[in-house]
Design brief:
Blueprint: E1 4-11, E2 22-28, H1 30-33, E3 41-46, E4 53-58, H2 82-104, H3 111-114
Antiparallel strand pairs: 1-2, 3-4
């Protein structure tokens, strides 16, 4: 769900913390501002495999609403590489091939055998 936009990305020259060198200024639509709580967490996510990145905010429940000019913590997301996706596709192909082979031979594959990862 789109709740706003990134209006500015800038270097934070005042921060002594090497993990806080980039600052994003977010414009959040007024009707969603109270939903972003102080225990919310931001991360960046790709829009599809090759798409642009967007800021994703996982809403909190216990904290107070973040005021204008407030901040929420950022957590780096694990990047999924093309190699990771290719390995997953190969595993899926192997599972489908094994299922087809077992169906053609009339053998039943038990769920626990079918779910075991292939080397």
């Amino acid at each position: 769900m789109l709740i706003g936009s990134v209006s500015m990305i800038k270097l934070d020259a005042t921060s002594d913390n090497p993990e806080r060198k980039v600052e994003l200024i977010l414009n959040v639509y007024k009707r969603y501002q109270d939903a972003i709580r102080s225990d919310s967490v931001a991360t960046t996510s790709p829009d599809g495999i090759l798409g642009a990145r967007y800021v994703s905010i996982r809403g909190g429940f216990k904290g107070a609403a973040v005021p204008p000019d407030g901040e929420i913590p950022f957590v780096a997301a694990k990047e999924i590489s093309f190699t990771d996706m290719l390995k997953s596709a190969v595993k899926l192909g192997n599972c489908l091939r094994d299922e087809k082979t077992s169906t053609e031979s009339g053998k039943q594959v038990s769920p626990e055998v079918a779910s075991k990862p292939h080397p």
